[in-house]
Fold this protein.
Amino acid sequence: MSKKAEVSKVLPTKEMNNYKQLLKYYDDKQFSKGLKIADQILKKFPQHTETLAIKGLFHHSLGKKEEGYQIVRNSIKMDISNQTAWHVNGIIYKNDKNYNEASKCFVNALRKDPENQIILRDLSLIQIQIREFEAFYKNRNKILQLKSNQVSNWIFCALGAHLIKRYNIAITLIDSYLLTIVNDTYTNYEMSELILFKIHVYSESKDYVKGLEELDKNESKIVDRSYFKEMKALFNLQLNNYSAAEALYLSLIHINCDNFFYFQQLVAAYLKKPTVNFDELTEEEQSLLRLLFEKIQKSYPSSSAAKFLPLKFLTGEAFERALDVYCQSGLKKGIPNLFNSINFIYQNSEKTLILQNLFLGYLKMLEAENKLTLSSSETETPIVKLWTLAFLAQHYNKINNFEEAFDYINQAIEHTPTAIDLYLIKGRIYKKAGNKFEAAKLFDYGRKLDLADRYLNTKCTHYMLRADQLEKAESVVKLFTKETGPTTNNLSDMQAMWYEQEKGESHLRNREYGRALKQFLSIEEHFLDFVEDQYDFHSYSTRKFTLRAYLDLLKFIDSIYSSPRYIRAAIGIIKCYLDLYDQIIINSKKSTNQTNNETDTSSVTTNTKGANKNKPPKKKKNKNNNNNNNNNNNQPKASANKKGQKQAIKGPVIEPNYSELTEVADKLEAATKYVKILLTHAPKNLATQKLAFELYIRKKKYILALFALKSFYSIAPNDPEFHLLNIRFAIEIKNENLDERITTLINAELEINPFIARGDLDQWNLNYFSKHNSFSHRLAFIKVNALLNKLDSIQAFDLLSKFEDNDSNATIQNFNDALTFLIQEKLPQPEIGVLKKKYQSKFKYAIDFTSEGFPVTFSEIANSNNLIEENII
Amino acid sequence: MSISIRLATISDLHAMQNANLSCLPENYQMKYYFYHLLTWPQLSFIAIDQNNNLVGYVLAKMEEDANPNDQHGHITSLAVLRSHRKLGIATKLMKQAERAMAVNFEALYVSLHVRVTNRAALTLYKDTLNFEKSAVEKKYYADGEDAFGMKKMLKSRNEYISDESL
């Protein structure tokens, strides 16, 4: 707050001193004391606007926000041009993170005294927080004119110029300031950072020649040697000075021989190209690089990059030899990560076969003569056989040969039952083979072999949550959160978003929408906190001179909503709201059908049984229904629930339903907020477009739905899901009485986008069928038949039984989709049973085909298309 | 192996925080990570696999209250995923952080704390990384456990720089 601010009505000395005291109390956060003093002054001088405003500030700071705002508003009414009142109003808005309002108040506060530096500074911090760069620069320029003897004013102004891409001004400002510096004012590090900011500006403005000049001129002043060399190398590469760049990257490799980026750039410089793609090298280039890497390997035997990278560009025999050397060394060291490190080989079927034969050869030799190759003179320790078996298990898992994978991992476990990593490998095989319960069991087994290892604990929790064993998961994760209160609070305090995400998704699978929303919204809170966290660093970084890192922070925050973690949480939120909306629709339809005595158990199931009135289920009912739901679920869930009931008697905290979160009046409106965020920050994500379509079709916003459809097509034209959305759109607009303007717009779109379905939809579907012939495309064809009321059950069973010859890629998920669909359509149970058995014979270990009933909700359908990036490390 | 070691940047911090939560009992909020990278942008390093997944990190700082002739760095946190052990990643990360402390901030030595019961970490620091125990700090950790303070002298800035020439 401005201490110099003119005080509107002059107070007697005693009160004036008290008033000054007020500001100190605010700075020291002694709000209650301050409030007392303010009341004392106001008792004698109730018309003292400044004191009244500050009283409001104290109230606000003490948590009585509404009262605070009211008092401050009153002070403004008392004197509309009062600077302090407006300034205080801005501060409370700022404290509530309402930056737009705060900014307006500060502008008002500046009316009377446009040169008040404190208010100008407060305003500038808001401007940068909300990325009003132009206004920020103007404002900082003004502050600099007012007070040019302060270093931070120069830096802020240069930053502002840089952010609006007026690079020359940024450079001039830094240069002018550097001229005024007397020796020893700043540390070497601080001076160096200032110079490097300039280098950064040259780099952003692509002025590489100037950048190089500046680097050379200041070499002795730049303490960050790595950055100095990195930039010098980069500028040289950009300017096609290949030999200079090559020498510099070699010297960087000397500093860090494990930085893959240095190697990549070195290769570019070496081959005299701006960039290099390892998959597109000529034979001559390959042999050139082979020599280069051999040389580097000799100079830096510990460099992993030098050993590994040749595997990426070598082919044929040279590849085979290099792979052999690489794998033998990995096996001898007993490196658990050997398999994952060469995962990329599986993109190439030829190389994959080489790899398989290599390891089968190792195993044969180990079993016969206890060495890795015929020519080898060394006998190997047992550990080498162990890791060879483990490798083969992972290999066969990767190529979906679970039979072989289990065989090898069991041999490995028999060989060394104490090696924890083997249980994790076996667990992963189970997961991929379709049994998440066995997978979780194995991770639990591994975890128990080393209780002090949090990594094992984390992975085990992950797998338990994927198997919807929420209580087990919680009791495991708790072992590492030492506090006394409820576990999840501590994890949430520490921003453990992986846990919230997995837990939320598990709740969503169980249709516990309140609990799911609770977790997803908590992730959103964390993101709001990250954005808020940056505020303090605006002035901090200018004090520390770490401007490059600060610019990185701004960039990071600008793209924070594109991070996979946020996207997944937003997807979860949208699915919850859409599911909740669909429930209401289904409920209301059911109540109409009730007269026909129709009982429908296939779709949204038990959740809706109790609520057949024409409105959403009420709070209490919801609770009962949730219990209902759990009891009716298949085995593993039921058993987990029993445990829960036992615990309930013992008395630990039972997680509330958070039903208030599901009682949003307008579900679609609630979803819209998140769809919009995804459309802005993750437009290339298939889930974004799919969910946008689902939302807008429900809202009957057909143009927006059409945009989503088009975007979906542009990302994945051959995705079977597209065909379904496409036909759904065509049906919707046929049935709906559309506004003429909408029809015109849609027709215009149809004209330029031939892929949008139209006309005779049966024919359209048949055409589709004739062009695509994978299992999932056939399923899409059949689903569309159902949409068009043309479902032919004999044809459906026939098409869905074919998968062995022409489409070995059909996945467990595809089969699940098929069965879910057939049950939903109420096709005859015996035939479904036969199909199930057939699927089971292909995926022997998958439990899904043995359990009873398939849930059908929107969330599952959306899940089935791998729209969410699954990533368990 | 296929693990790359490079300087940590702000955009790596989500992954770093996640790895920390997955591996270690001492956890921090994001702001603390911001604070490290915005105060000492040169000192923290990460290890990434060929798919750009973070598999290890060192989060490091300078001791702020040290007097001018006792400048030294401090390792706030060091972790490598269990799945990526035996690759020497911790050693490589530490080597980069140590160099950066000496070169950028003229650190004389680097210090760290380790739980007295954490044998694996003690062995790593003592035998592999050549740290020495300097003191026992009573009840250093929130749960009441003691810590060993450990220390390692660093090469001087000039030595590091003359080592740069090939």
Q: What stands out?
A: Chain A touches chain B through 71 residues (CB under 8 Å). The two ends of chain A are 50 Å apart (CA to CA). Chain A has a mean pLDDT of 87.
